[in-house]
Design brief:
Layout: H1 2-30, E1 50-51, E2 57-58, H2 61-72, E3 78-79, E4 82-85, E5 88-91, E6 94-96, E7 101-106, H3 111-126, E8 130-135, H4 142-150, H5 156-170
Parallel strand pairs: 7-8
Antiparallel strand pairs: 1-2, 3-6, 4-5, 6-7
Length: about 170
Amino acid sequence: MQETISLVIGYLGLLIIIFITYLVIKKKRANGSKKKPKNEQSQSIQIKKYTCLDGHLVKSKGELIIDNYLYLLKIDHKYEKSIYIFGSKIKYDWYLPKYDIYIEYWGFGGKNYEKRKKEKLRLYKKANLKLISIENYMFYDIYLEMDNLLKKFIDIKRLKKIVSLNNYICN
């Protein structure tokens, strides 16, 4: 019974986040900040960047979902900056400075990509850096998956309570 109640509360929280996202996007669009592709005649336009709620420009819909979720949780994050680990330059997907955590979304494929992925994982491990790895299969329930990954390093329940309280106070 307790697990069912927790599950329902979790889904209600997710619905609230989705609704808040909808309101924020609706407000941005009403203010005229909606960016449209230049050539609207073609239905097969290849979008190269997606605009997140916090203004980050990301390369995929998966990155868009992850970045927006970090933003909605009010977790300060940096997107795609370069760092050096043992003399090797790598570009991380996200860095959470308050928690000293790196997040990598392994959303592509191919021989060269897999080779680079292995090298990055080796460097993160060798440097003993905290890393959250997100794979494509996790998108079946990405918010639950991200919560499970984040709670290894962050008190996610406390964080969600603070976010809920702030949203309640601000509205």
